[in-house]
Amino acid sequence: MSGESARRFPPRVVPIGAVALAVVLFAAGSLLGWGGTVLPGWAETAVAVAAVGSLLAAVVPLPLRPGRGGAEDRPRRRDPRRDCWSWLAIAAACWLAGAATDLVSPGLLGSATEALSLADLFYLAAIAALTTGFVVPIRLPRDVGTWTRYVADTYVCVAALFVFGWVAEFDRLYHLSGESPAEFVLELLYPLVGTMLVCGALPFVLGAARAYRAGVWTAYLALVAFVAADIASMIARLRGDAPPGDPGDIPRVAGLLLLGLAPWIRPMPAVERPRTSPDEAADDTEPAVPYGRMIGPGLTPAAVAAASALFVAGHSLTGSRGMEPVVTIVAGSAVLVLLARLAGLLRENDGLRHAVEAGEEHFRALADSINDVVLICDLIGGIQYVSDRARQVYGHEPDDLVGRGLTELVHPEDLPHLEEVYGEFLASDRAALRVACRVRAADGTWLPTESTVSRYTSSRVLVTTRDLSEQAALQRQVTHLTFHDGLTGLPNRAYFEERVREVLSREAASGRVAVVFADLDGFTAVNDSAGHAAGDQVLAQAARRLRAAVQADDTVARWGGDEFAVLVENADEARAAVELAERLQRVLTAEPYRAGSREVVLSASVGLAFADSDLADQTGEAAPRPGRQSGADLIRNGDLAMARAKELGGGRVEVFAAHMHADVVRRLELGAELQRALAEEQFTVEFQPVVDLATSRVTGVEALVRWWRGSESVPPQEFIRPAEESGLMIPLGDWVLRESCRQVARWRAESWDVGLSVNFTARQIAAPRFVESVAAALEETGLPPSALTLEVREEVLVEDAGQNVRRLTELRDLGVRLAIDDFGTGYASLAYLGQLPVDVIKIDPSFVAGLGRDDTLTLLTRTIVRLGRDLGLTVVAEGIERPEQLELLREMQCPRGQGFLVARPMAAGPADALLRTNLTGLAGPGDPAGAGRGPDGDPEVPLHGPALSPG
C-alpha cells in the first residue's frame, strides 16, 4: 500500500473491517441455513482467526519490555497495553485451536464422557488467558488484607450466583439427568469456572487505566459472552433438546468479535515511524501509559447476594420442594463470609471515623497554631469553616463568617481579577493558586493579604490567608529610607536621579525641565570648628529654606554633603528658572544659621542647567549640546555650573555653558597626560630674576615650572590646577624644588650671592613629611636654608592657621624664609602680618599695573610698601612692565621688584649669562676696593629695562 493510502486508511481500519466481514458472513450463513452444525464451526474458526489477527496487529506497534542488551538493544519503556493485548491474543489463539480441534475431531479425548474433550481444554486455557489479560496491566497490592477482602468478595459473588442458578435451573437439570454428583460437577465445570473468572476479574477491570479502559471492558464483555455461551450449551445438552444448532454458538462468536475489537475501541497512538536500518533505534517520544490499580467491587457482592437470597426465599415459599443440602451449605458459607466481610467493613469504618475525627482535631489545632487564617469554602466561595486566628488578625468572630461569601470580604477593586484567576484555577489541573488582595477587617479597614487556594475535596477548597500589613509597612519604610535622606527628610540622590529620568521621559514639549544645584561655601569650617552635630543642624535649616522657596511640584533633594539639588518641572521661561536659582542663593545666604550655641554666616554657590539648548540660549550663556539631554547629562551640567560658581569665588549663580564641560574634559585629559609627562621628564624649570630696584642688582631668582609637550609649551594656568586636583602637584613640586635648589647652589658655589624663591600650594604644605622633604632637598643639593624663600598665597596661612603655620614655622626655624605671594588680594587683614611668620610680602601685579594710571591703586601700593618697611618686611613688587612703574616704585622706596621690564623667565643657560654679566660686570680688576658697589658692598649694575631680558 502506498504512503498516500496508509494516510487515508488508519491501521485500525483493517482489523475492524475483517471483524465486520466475519459478522456479515456469519449472519448470511445463519439466514441461509448452510451446513447445519458445520457452518457455525467454520464461522467460529474464521472469527477466531480474525480476532487473532486483529490483536496481533494491535500488539506489534507497542513498545517492548525493557531490554538488557548493549547499545543496539537500547532499554525501552514498558507499555501495559502490550501485556494486555498479548494475553488477549493468546486467548484468541487458544480459542482458535479449540475451535479447529472441535471442527476436525469433536469427540477427541471424549470417549468416556461427552462433558470434556481436548477442545474443552483449549477453551479453558483461552478463558484463563483472557482473565490473565485483565490482571497483567494492574499494579497488584502487597498487603494480605486486600487479598483477603478480594477472595471473600469473589466467593460471595460466586456463591450467590451458584445458588441463584441452582435454584433456578441446575437443581431440576440434576434430577432429570440422572447423573452422579461427580458427573454433574463436570457438567458444571464450564459455568463454575466461568462464573469464578467473571467475578474474580471484575476488580481488575474496574481499575484499568483510562488509556485502555474501554478496550478492557470490551474484552470483559467477551468473557461474559463466553461464560453465557457455556451455560446455554450445558443447559441445552442436559435438557436433551435437539436444536438445529448449539445455542451457545452465537454468544461465542459475539465474544470473539468483541475480543478482536477490544484494542480498537479507542484510537491507537501514533505508530512508530519505519526504521531506515535494522540498527536504528525506535523513537521513544510517545508518553508513557500508566498501570492500573485493583479496585474492590464495592456493593456488587452484597447486591448479588441479596438478589440471590430474595430469589431463593421466594422460590422456597412458592416451590413444591424444600431446600437442597448443597444450597444450604453454599448459601450458609456465603452468608458467614458476608457477615465476616461486613464486620471487617464496620471495623474499617469505625477506624476511618476515628481517623477523620483525629484528623479534624489535628487540622483545627494546626490551623489555630499558625499565623495564617485558614478557611474552608465551597466552590462558589461560601465559607464553611474559619480558624480562630481570624479573631486576632481581622477582628472577625469565626462563627460570624461561616455562611457568608468570600466576595463580601474582598476589596471591590480586587474582586474582578480574583474571580478571573479563581475561575481559571477551577478549570485547570493546578494544585494551588496564590493571589494577593485586600481584605476588610472588622473595623472597616482594608488589609493587604496573600492567599493560597488549594483543592481540599472535590466540592471544597482550602484557603490560607496571610496578613501582609507589617510587611507592607516595612516595605514603605525601607522604600522611604532608600530614597530619602535621614537627616533632612528630603529625597536623596537615588530618588532625584530616578525622578529626573522619569520627568524627561514624560515631558513631550522641550525646554520644560531644569535642575538647580546649590552648595554651601565654607561649610567644612563649620564642621571643623563647631562639630558635626552643629553642621547637621545647619544642613537641616538649609533644607527647610530650600523647601519653602520652591513650588509644590518641584523636587528638592539632598545630593550629598552640603550640596542640594532642585528639579524644576515647569520651566516654561528661562528667566523664571534663573530667578528661582537667584532666589535660592539669597535664601541660603540672607540670614545666619544657628550652629550649636552660635550663629554662622555662609554664602552659597548655585548652578543652573536646562534640559534644552533653546532655554539656555535665552540666558545669554553659550548653549549646551543641541537636542534633548538625558537625565545623567542634565544632572552633570547642573553640577558643573555649581562647580564653576565655586571656582569664581562662590556666592553667585552660574548657568551651564558648553565650555564648562569642555574645560572639565580638558582637565581630566591633562591629568592623565601629566602623569605620563612626569614619568617622561617633560617638565623644565625657568628662573625669573628679582632685582634690587635701588642698585639694579640681581638678588635672587623665582623658580617657575614649564611643560614642554614635544615642541609645544603648555601654559602653567592650564596644567597647574589639574595637577593640584589629581594630586600630582606634590611629586611635581618636589621635583621643581630639587632642580631649582641644585641650580642655585651651583651658582652660589661660583660666589654669586643669589637667593631662590619657590611657590608652594596648600596641598603641598598639607602633605605628609612636607618639612622633612624640604630639609632633605636642601641637604641633598647643598643650598643653605637662608637662601630659600617659600612663597605661599595668604589664604594658605589664614584658612588652616594651625597646621600650615606650624609647618612653616618649623621651616623658618631651620632658616628658610617665608613670603606672601600676591599680597592684597587674599582673605587676610593687615593685622595678620604681625602674627604670621612672614619675611617677605610680594605686591600683587594688579596693584603695580595701576601705577601712574589709577590714583587709588597707586595709593594702595604706596601704603603696602610703607607698611612692609614699618614692619621690617622685605617688599617685592611683581609685574613691572613699564618704565613709569619702575620710577614710581623707586620713588616709593620699594626695595625689590620683578617683571618683564626687568627680565622675563628664562632657562638655566640664559639665566647663568645674565647673572654673570650682572654680578661681575662692575667688579673688574681695577676696582679691588669695591668701586661700583652699592652702600652694602654688593655690585651695582644700571638697570636698562628690557636690555636685561633675553627677549
Short synopsis of the structure:
The chain is of the alpha/beta class and 951 residues long. It has 33 helices and 23 strands.
Structure in words:
It is a single chain. The protein has 951 residues and is α/β, with parallel strands linked by helices. 53% of the residues lie in helices and 14% in strands. The longest helix is centred in the middle third of the chain and has 45 residues, at 325-369. The chain starts with a helix and ends in a 31-residue tail after the last helix. The relative contact order is 0.04.
- The first-to-last residue Cα distance is 112 Å
- Shape, per Cα inertia axes: elongated
Q: What summary fits the major beta sheet?
A: 8 strands, mixed, barrel
**Strand content of the residues, in percent?**
5-15%
Beta strands, count: 23
User: Pairing-aware structural class of the strands and helices?
Assistant: alpha/beta
- What integer value in Å does the Rg equal? 57 Å
Individual helix count: 33
Q: How much helicity do the residues have?
A: 40-55%
| Biggest sheet: strand arrangement | 15-16-18-19-20-21-22-23
Regions with little confidence, pLDDT below 50 for 5+ residues? 1-9, 67-76, 109-113, 268-286, 613-627, 922-951
Give the rounded overall mean pLDDT. Answer: 76
Please write out the topology.
Blueprint: H1 3-8, H2 13-32, H3 38-59, H4 80-104, H5 118-135, E1 138-139, H6 144-177, H7 181-187, H8 189-206, H9 213-239, H10 249-261, E2 292-293, H11 300-318, H12 325-369, E3 373-378, E4 383-386, H13 389-393, H14 398-401, H15 415-427, E5 432-440, E6 446-455, E7 460-467, H16 469-483, H17 493-506, E8 514-521, H18 523-530, H19 532-549, E9 555-560, E10 563-568, H20 574-589, E11 593-595, E12 598-600, E13 603-610, H21 613-618, H22 631-647, E14 653-655, H23 658-679, E15 683-692, E16 697-709, E17 712-714, H24 716-726, H25 729-749, E18 755-759, H26 762-766, H27 770-781, E19 788-793, H28 794-799, H29 801-814, E20 817-823, E21 840-843, H30 845-848, H31 855-871, E22 874-878, H32 883-891, E23 896-898, H33 908-920
Parallel strand pairs: 1-2, 13-14, 16-18, 18-19, 19-20, 20-21, 21-22, 22-23
Antiparallel strand pairs: 3-4, 3-7, 5-6, 6-7, 8-10, 8-13, 9-10, 11-12, 15-16, 15-23, 16-17
